[in-house]
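Cast an eye over this sequence plus tokens and walk me through the fold:

***
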Amino acid sequence: MKKALITATTAYMISQFNIKDIKRLIDCGFKVEVAANFENPGPLNQEKYNLLIKQLNENGIKYFHIPFSRNPISKDNLKAYFQLKSIIDSGNFDLVHTHTPIAGLLTRLIIKNKSLYKIYTAHGFHFYKGAPILNWLLYYPLEKLMSKYTDVLVTMNEEDYQIAKNNFTAKTVKKINGVGIDLDKFQSIGLSQLDLFDELKIDRTSFLVLSIGELNDNKNHMTVIKAIQRLANPMIKYIIVGTGVNYSKYQEYIRQHRLENNVFLLGYRDDIAELLKTTDLFIFPSYREGLSVALMEAMASGLPIIASNIRGNKDLVIQEKGGILVSPESSEEFASAIQKLYNDSQLMSNYGEFNVSRIQDFSNTVVDKQMYEIYNLYPTK
């Protein structure tokens, strides 16, 4: 039987994005193994971690802990290189599919001279229009160099696709419509039974604005918090779902500026579909994205969108048709966009209906077809 290895920096990546790839490879006749950091799995709570391990075990997937670090200069990545090299050297793999910059770099360094099929998925290059110059100096040369040792380079947005196609040397460059989402999960839920008004002890006529994402600088929730502060409208409630290093920082800012009745940090939630059905507006203010699952899920739920005008978001949200794209640095632009939609329920409804139609092209069914075509490029012997 053919053997395939999937590598990613964290177990979170495997859980959120690669379970589908495992199934697809099995369907294509491969025995699949997985390598990632399982001891520091990223923003994955214990319940989700246990579910991942259960899924791997039930499908007979052998998995290896590799001490990858998301910090490119961490000494752990040297250990990761040698541990992964040992696994690959003895694994007799026919195909390796690697994800994320660190795992992608180390994996391709190891397999560059091996006669196996090499696939790399870029979930959003760390260099992009408007990125810090350091990102271009560090990541661009490495990605360009390693593309030489890549049979298929998979991208998820137009900007990345054009960079890879025009500047890199991978044998084949493909663009897929993200990782795919389960449309039924978000479109068949009907009226939400979640009573968020009671949970948060807020007026039932409140206007609920939702963001979902890790609490870090890249996800940029602080700019929206400042927009809410600028609006000073007691009826507009900003709800943030996620965990991360900036939790205490946001909590302190909310306390200092007396925003406790306007901004709510809900932490980790497993009822995302219910939350999306309960809220009025979705805001996605990131500085860097590939093609966001959270944003696609909000669109599938029929919500109007306010998002940062960046790569990835622009591939999903059509300006003035499905939402409003604004500068990620400008709390004033976010505030203006929120106010515009708050004042116009018909416009919100139009945006939401458009998004439900548009997101059909990003379904599991569409992405399954795209990925099966990529895996079927594997040369039969």
In short: The domain at 183-361 is CATH 3.40.50.2000 (Rossmann fold). The radius of gyration is 21 Å.
